[in-house]
Amino acid sequence: MLTLIKLLKTLNSTQTNFQLSLALIFGMFSGFLPFFSLINAIVVLVVFSLNIPLGVYVVFTVMFSMLGALLDNSFATFGYMLLTDSSLNNLWTTLYNFTPALWFNFNHTITLGSFMVSLIMLFPLYFISKPLFNHYRNTLIKLSQKIKIFRWFILDIDTTKKVKLFRWWGSGLIIAIFLIVVLFSILLFDPIIKYSLEYLLSKATKSEVSIKNVNTNFRNTTFKFSEISIINDKQISNIKHIIVDLDTDHLINKKLDIKSIDIKDISLNNKLLVQTSYNKAKTSQQTKNTDDKGQASDIFKFNLLDIDAILNKEDLKSIKESKMIQQRFNDINKKWKDIEENKINNIDTKNLNDDFKNIKVLGKNIKSLEDIKHITIEIKEFKNKISVIQEEINVYKEEYKKDKDILNNDLKQIKTLPNDDYKYLISKYSLNQNSAFSIVSTYIGKDMSKYIKIFIGYLNMIKPYLPSSEDDDKIIRQKGQWITFKVLSPYPTFVLQNLNANIVSKKFDDCRIYLSYNVDTKININVSHYKQNIIKLDKKLHLKDNIVNFNANVNIKKFDNMSSIIDVNFIKTNFIYKDRLNKYDMIIKNILNDIDMFYIESKITTSLQNTNDMKISIVSDIDRKLKNGLKKESNKQILEYKRKLKLKLKEKIRANIGNISNEDFEKYSNLLNDKENLLRNIQKELVFKYNIKNIKDKLNKQYKNKLKKFFNKSSIK
């Protein structure tokens, strides 16, 4: 309440209204603009230099700060629109290459947006606020004359005293404060840097970081950080000292040029690192692998694709064709069952036999020419019946022949049906070139990818503190965005001319790291004669008594793309294979005993924005050394796999076709042949015994016998 009364008194303590309006205007600038900006510092200096009520200025600054927090997104959008306007691009490019303009942060969206909004509102707000303040004060004076309590809000005004525009002590106070801050900063610079770095590094690494001493030489602009330790519950790392040498020639242009960074004697607690790594590997193995007693090691196990899964997945021509063959067989079989039941079985052979017996009876009882004529007619009709039946049988036989040819072709096709699909599957699911397995790509590729992603994680952690890409168009809410323009100066914004570091350890003779940055980043890491007693590759496979040379060259272009070449040369090693004396283990053990050195060269390219597009190529002579030994065994496995694949394919086709055979189909041929043979026998006998000539001869013979008997009887008498 007392604060409000003081504020109201302050509003009535000045002699002119323009002072209140200026306090309102400058409060708007300070409230809308980001607090830590050069423009805001100039506004504060002007406020202290002019005869403006400081209390009113502070109140309006707080009010407009709260309003500005709500309008930050609008300021950012407005500033972004201005900075990306193509018609203003030349202006912004010129300012971007003009050093004083850079210090005003004009290329920051919220800074530019809030400044332009304040500038637009300056004159309207000034001329509107003056009469409002005047009306308010006159109203308060009238109320004070009527109501005594309002006299508390009014101070006596000396209207005879001339109002001064400037406040001489204000500028002096600001300068004095600035000098005191600079002096204390110089005196306390080292401890401020020390505690600031400890806090920031501890937060970034989530570890306890301590720095014993920080020594700054302003004359040479060098910084020395001594005895740095990074401690957490898993590891302890120490650095003897870090010396940073700056080149200040380009600092006025907001360009950071680091001549060199020298990191001396990086010491890691190798025992903790190895134990941690071993525990992680052990946990991973326990969760992923089961006891493989009596089995070959997973690294050398032939993990071939599941045959049933392949056959179910692929739309194979042979499978579809086998289903069509099955359908054709069923259709033909059904058709001939119908023919058998409704056609062949209905051929009336009994009537034929009866007719033929009747003809036989007639043939025996021929006594006259009328009998001959009658039997001739019967024979002719009987032959016509046989001809009709014969034609019908011929039609069925012709149709049977066609269907039988179809079935025979299908049966032949079944034998060769899987061949084309088998060749297709073998070519599509080729196990490997030349039947060789890539142990390096299989075994090291996944781990390499994992460590690269860890490296990229650390890179992303420090990326916000490095120059951003020019094509980053995403607006960050509440923080704004820095828009970059074409740099006409050939000198880049950030340069690290040289970084040298060495790591001290009993495990290797020498380890040196070199890094340089000038738009692009180059990193070289070289480790000589790294000694590691045991390297566990697998539950069964270890590398013992290892001496390794390591060299890595990494190139990072604008923090967007990375390419690297990593050479690992095992100049001495012994493969230890804990075998169980099965047939796989014996082969592997004999092959590995002959290998005492090998190299691995890996090339890695990736986009740092999307690590899913990472490409890793690995070349090693260990593949060649293992290839010859593994080739024989792998060929056996592959041949067995091919045999099973072909067998499974045939079984699947056979399952679709069923027990197709032309043996059952032969019964229809036999049935037709039986009918036909019956007709032939009847025809043959009919032709042989009952042709007209035979009947006439028989009749003549009968007449001759009768005449002979007649004459014999007459002569006797």
UniProtKB/TrEMBL annotation:
InterPro entries: CHP03546 (IPR019935). Keywords: Coiled coil, Membrane, Transmembrane, Transmembrane helix. The chain crosses the membrane at residues 20-48, 55-83, 103-128, 168-189. The keyword Coiled coil applies. Residues 372-417, 631-685 form a coiled coil. This is DUF2062 domain-containing protein. It comes from hydrothermal vent metagenome. The lineage of its organism: unclassified sequences, metagenomes, ecological metagenomes.
